[in-house]
Amino acid sequence: MRNTILISLFLMLLPVSVSAQFYTITRNTEILPTERRKESYNRAGKDVTEGKKNKMMVKDTLTVRSDNHKESEGNSQNSDRKASLKREQQKNVDDIIKVENQLPELTIPNLYKEIIRNGILYPKIVLAQAILETGWFRSSVCRNKHNLFGLINPRTGRVHTSFNQTVTATGRLSSSNPNLQNIPIRDENGKEIRKAFIPDEGCLFFSADYSQIELRIMAHLSEDKNMIDAFLSNHDIHAATAAKVYKIDLKDVGSDMRRKAKTANFGIIYGISVFGLAERMNVDRKEAKELIDGYFETYPGVKAYMDKSIQVAQEKGYVETIFHRKRFLPDINSRNAVVRGYAERNAINAPIQGSAADIIKVAMARIYQRFQTEGIQAKMILQVHDELNFSVPVNEKERVEEIVIEEMEKAYRMHVPLKADCGWGKNWLEAH
Predict the structure, then answer these.
(1) Considering Cα of 221, then 223, then 224, then 225, what sign does the dihedral take?
(2) Domain coordinates of the chain in residue numbers?
(3) pLDDT at position 137, please?
(4) pTM of the model
(5) Structural contact between residues 426 and 201, judged by C-beta atoms closer than 8 angstroms
(6) 203 pairs with which residues across the strands?
(7) Helix residue spans in 202-284 (DSSP H)
(8) pLDDT at position 152, please?
(9) Regarding beta strands 203-210 and 174-176, do their DSSP bridges make them parallel or antiparallel, or are they unpaired?
(10) Domain 214-355 of CATH type 3.20.20.140
(11) Quick one: 63 exposed, middle or buried, by C-beta within 10 A (0-12, 13-18, 19+)?
């Protein structure tokens, strides 16, 4: 059945016009594999029969013979035709079965590979349409054998992602098969998905994440006094930025001012342009330029650090994280302004994002060691960049929180303290 569905999909997709952008998979043609197979067999026999008739019709001469000879010859020819027809029908049937037996197992990954291999446009759209319109996702085959695209481990009954250590240029961990770091934001769909992440039976879900770690790293690397003071005073960094940029008291900062300052904090340190900031904040370029100018006036050390990072990259061909892990930038001296600009932004970004990746890896290693040393049964089950998630037995709740927060905040000593927030719940949504 599974192979027949795959064949049906291929038969449908292959004859489409070259100009077609989307493809339709109908329930009637694809969800009835048994009927489809019978139809193929009948069609094979019909083609052979019609072919024989066509051959007979091309004869335009008549040979007169005795009745007995004609009857004998006719019986012989009919017998030969029937035998030949039967052989050709069987050959067509055998060919169909042979093709089916050679097809890969019908799983989502295999189907996706075949769609790609056949050069189908918009493969993800085609795949999604096939799953939805055929009802395959709701079928017992999918539910019982290929639940979540066949990624459930048969031994544990769970989905296990693969973490890649050295795939990203920044040094961040990446996740694949499936990518569990790419969970939607907390909209209605995202909330429902996060509810699906649950701890072991008798355990609680614990989530801990760094608070504004990249801005804290920027404060450390740039040694900007105003930014360091804001963090040391435990002020809201975005409100503090707004107060200084707009030259007002901290208590007078409104929500709109804070929002703009937040956008500036995360955008400017990654080399965002006036145009880019204007687009992101939905303001005119004049206001965006004034905000950038005010930002660098407030944090002159940040501007100096950004310029220095680009200069170092141009001289050495690379930049480094706080742990001296290198990011090479071969295009930093390119004559192409667009290419060079991209490399310059990476020269600013890589030490910050790369250092954040290094720090949480150190924290993860130390947490694991502490769990092992103290006989803690809690398990670290997921890392999402600046966030760590755990399945924790109820009786270990207080101790696990103490260990995790301590090791995250002490992973690296900087000019400003690292800070980690945490939460508990029955699932990921409740915990974070």
Answers:
(1) positive
(2) 2-145, 214-355
(3) 60
(4) 0.66
(5) no
(6) 393
(7) 213-222, 225-232, 237-245, 255-268, 274-281
(8) 72
(9) unpaired
(10) no
(11) exposed
